Prior knowledge:
The protein has 463 residues and is an alpha/beta fold. 29% of the residues lie in helices and 24% in strands.
Amino acid sequence: MRLDTVIRGGTIVTASDTTRGDVGILGDKIVAIAQDLNPENASRVIDAAGRYVMPGGIDVHTHLDMPFGGTKSADDFESGTIAAAHGGTTTLIDFAIQYKRQTLRHAFDTWMAKADRKAAIDYAFHCIITELGDAHVEEMGALVREGVPSFKLFMAYPGVFMLDDASIFRAMLAAAKYGGMICMHAENGGAIDVIVQRALAEGKRAPKYHALTRPTTAEAEATSRAIALAEMAGAPVYIVHLSCNDALEKVREARDRGLAAYAETCPQYLYLSLENMDAPGFEGAKYVFTPPLREKWNQEKLWQGLAKDTLQVVSTDHCPFCFKEQKELGRDDFTKIPNGGPGIENRMSLVFSGGVNGGRFSVNRFVQLVSTAPAKLFGLYPRKGTIAVGSDADIVVFDPNEEMVISASTHHMRVDYSMFEGIRVRGVAKIVLSRGRVIVEDGEFKGRAGSGEFIKRRQYSGV
Ligand code: URP
Ligand code: ZN
Ligand code: ZN
């Protein structure tokens, strides 16, 4: 069989198996997996000896080119997807935002235009709903049929993104009817707003008050309410950026009862804590995102949640704002600091390093968390999320032992700081293929902006 590429002699890792062998690629697909593929039949041979050959990472929570708080996130679809590729991520799902008095269609078209001719890896969209009339409900059905089967709703940010419970419930009923998935930002925005106003009245304006005014109970309450509403509606619910043990317990209870309740966490909640908010001067603004950082003991609870499947996914919530020009907007008032942090490039190394090399879970569980479960939950599987004949040749050749120190001076994200500055990780993506093409090799980007494709996704069908 003639092949374009053979990846030779690596350890092929999927969510279920670890085998030694070769992977053969023709065009943009994996066409052979065998003990010994003849290298003479291939135009290109990649030596993977001593390395893992894994499905490309799937980051289901990013905000590229997103307007927020009077500015917009610093990475667009070109810089953000190139940074993602450097870290071993080959597909992302971003968010198309419906603003008030707009159709969902308009949101989708707007974000499609942002990504067009820019994305260097494949991409898809969830649709954020901020207003839900009858026509929008109909639009949800149309979007599901057109390959956008997931919707993000907010229980926080009153007056901006927050939906009331009735609208949330109606969106969930529609998701249940059309085969959609509801992604929920679960924080009690009303209660938080009261606490925030009280803090401001007391003159508490420094970045750390962003964290101190958003208690874990507000996240746990909203998580519980989201799950209860989804249960009544018969819809699956996916809690985004879960940050603390109090909320984790609510997901655990729901899953123990057999509900279709899922949750992701993000590397910032696994590696950083409230202590980062005490950085000198205004530096704490680097860690202003929602939900906020929590007391350090929550980190190990989240790692255990990943190991035990209370949490199914690690995404990044990549939403970068430059420290100098953008975070600065809130120097005198923490409520004006644009919410979000950068991480799209670091997810695979951070999760591998802390999870696999840290002895918390297997390499197969790692693949499940960063690629296979995201693909299954969000309708990309088996095209994405595994190494199998017929799947897209989105592949990462990963060195499990190479070490790297994360730093803004070497990263590729278009932002002037790193949340993970100085953290040493063990486990690095060395060669990254997107649909058969090498797009990163030994730290060098070899792909092309615009070569990423919009991927139509299937309806929700479980994990
Ligand atoms: O602070 C964050 N997380 N910014 C992005 C928007 C969101 O809520 O995910
Ligand atoms: Zn959110
Ligand atoms: Zn987000």
